[in-house]
Specification:
249 residues; alpha/beta; Metallo-beta-lactamase, Chain A; 7-stranded mixed sheet; 14 strands
Length: 249
């Protein structure tokens, strides 16, 4: 049963390489009682600042996989929270297997010596076991395996809150697990890296068009687009994200 509206903001809708001048992936989902970010690419603090959003307003970050354009902003978020924003409210960072250790290594690489810093706010790291629903704040989050670079421990995410379902492919080729994440969702956020070119470990538009019926989602928004795909956004019937786009479910 649906309650209050759920808002989804594409703070960053770009790929790894700044195609179209877009920020890397950062998608805010606002329910009635919590605000979560789906992925948090390296440029996310800048994107939040440009859009007038306080990083301290985020209750949780849900990561699909451990590539920098999807997780590299977390160390900046944590350092900012400790040194500049002086965060006091709790923060949850949830994501794939080996999350805390790997993010610690990334943070230390970006900010050598930062391992000695201890947050003065409650910080929880949660690993999401694929196929197992997990209660996080007032959400139910289910990760499923994705087919992407194996070293990133890739997943797709299904987020249920206040009677609404937001599904997000992360970076992946088409699989039955991705279909499972998307099935019956109020919104499917699907990466669409290329319009025609097939590329390993990613979705392109022909794959999305071929499996559109399998998605079974009420609404589909394409994101994570290369220069080639950006040139064809007017040629597809699906909605295409842009930085700052806000939709309400």
């Amino acid at each position: 049963m649906s309650g209050m509206p759920v808002s989804v903001r594409f703070v960053g809708s770009g790929d790894s390489f700044g195609s179209g001048g877009r920020f890397q992936t950062c998608i805010l989902v606002d329910g009635p009682r919590s605000r979560v970010a789906l992925d948090f690419g390296t440029s996310s603090l800048i994107a939040l600042a440009q859009q007038g959003i306080e990083p301290n307003s985020i209750d949780a970050v849900l990561l699909t996989h451990l590539h920098g354009d999807h997780c590299g902003g977390v160390p900046f978020l944590l350092i900012d929270a400790m040194l500049a924003a002086r965060r006091t409210r709790p923060l949850i960072v949830a994501g794939p297997h080996d999350l805390e250790r790997r993010m610690g290594e990334i943070r230390e690489a970006l900010f050598p010596g930062s391992h000695v810093m201890t947050p003065k706010f409650p910080l929880r790291w949660l690993e999401l076991e694929p196929g197992t629903p997990r209660d996080i704040l007032d959400l139910v989050v289910t990760a499923q395996p994705a087919r992407h670079t194996a070293e990133t421990n890739p997943t797709a995410l299904r987020v249920e809150l206040d009677g609404k379902v937001v599904a997000y492919t992360g970076d992946t080729e088409w699989t039955d697990d991705v279909a499972l994440v998307a099935r019956g969702a109020d919104l499917l956020i699907a990466e669409c890296y290329y319009y025609e070119k097939p590329i390993k470990w990613h979705l392109n538009y022909p794959a999305i068009a071929a499996h559109r019926a399998d998605f079974g989602a009420r609404r589909v928004i394409l994101t994570h687009m290369s220069r080639e795909m950006l040139a064809h956004t007017g040629d597809v019937p699906e909605e295409c994200a842009h930085d700052g786009l806000v939709v309400t479910l």
